[in-house]
Amino acid sequence: MQHTQRFLPAFALLALILAPQASLAQQRIELEGRVSRVDGTRIELSGGLVALEARGAEFEAGNDILRGVSDLTSGTAVEIIASVQPDGSMTATEIEINNEKNPEDSIKGVVSAVDQAARSFTIGPLMIYFDDATRLKKLSAIQSGSFVEATLDVSDGRLRATLVEREKPND
């Protein structure tokens, strides 16, 4: 019994250390944007500001023929469902061609942190900036733990939210 009691604090500490990684790894993020670059099984979106691994992803073509990453070209509009890995990288689980005429860059996911001083919030490993022009819809403030969709402007070389809307997961 004494041996068990001696190891319980060590196991509790280990659980605390691993818990943030486990919750990060369980995050699901939905991304929309145009492919900037394809390098093997790595895809970059939003002018290279978002990168993810696509090895093992399921491809849904809609009306287009899409068999794998090699069928994606720069400028192709896509919708991607990704999971966040323990190291903070993202892996695409589903990739689909977005047939909208003028698709916008966007991200859906759970806000994990908000930094009012830096005017930013985090979804998975991605830092999204906001400013006075950012519109909020169905929420009064960006809060940690909220599931949101952020429409993005990437023209200044960073992910800047133009609209942040509270969503229900899987909408």
Q: What Rg is obtained from the alpha carbons, in whole angstroms?
A: 18 Å
Number of helices: 1
Largest sheet: 12 strands, mixed
Sum up the overall morphology in one term. globular
Strand portion, in percent? 35-45%
Structural class: mainly beta
Report helical residue fraction.
10-25%
User: Would you identify the CATH architecture of the largest domain?
Assistant: Beta Barrel
Total discrete domains: 2
Low-confidence stretches: 1-22
Q: In CATH's first tier, which class of the largest domain applies?
A: Mainly Beta
CATH topology of the largest domain: OB fold (Dihydrolipoamide Acetyltransferase, E2P)
- For this structure, what is the CATH homologous superfamily of the largest domain? Nucleic acid-binding proteins
CA-CA gap between termini: 50 Å
Per DSSP E runs of 2 or more residues, the count of β-strands stands at 12
User: Helix-strand pattern, N to C?
Assistant: HEEEEEEEEEEEE
**Global mean pLDDT:** 84
Question: What's the helix and strand layout?
Answer:
Elements: H1 2-25, E1 28-39, E2 42-45, E3 50-53, E4 58-60, E5 77-84, E6 90-97, E7 105-115, E8 120-123, E9 126-129, E10 135-137, E11 147-153, E12 160-166
Parallel strand pairs: 4-6, 10-12
Antiparallel strand pairs: 1-2, 1-5, 1-7, 2-3, 5-6, 7-8, 7-11, 8-9, 11-12
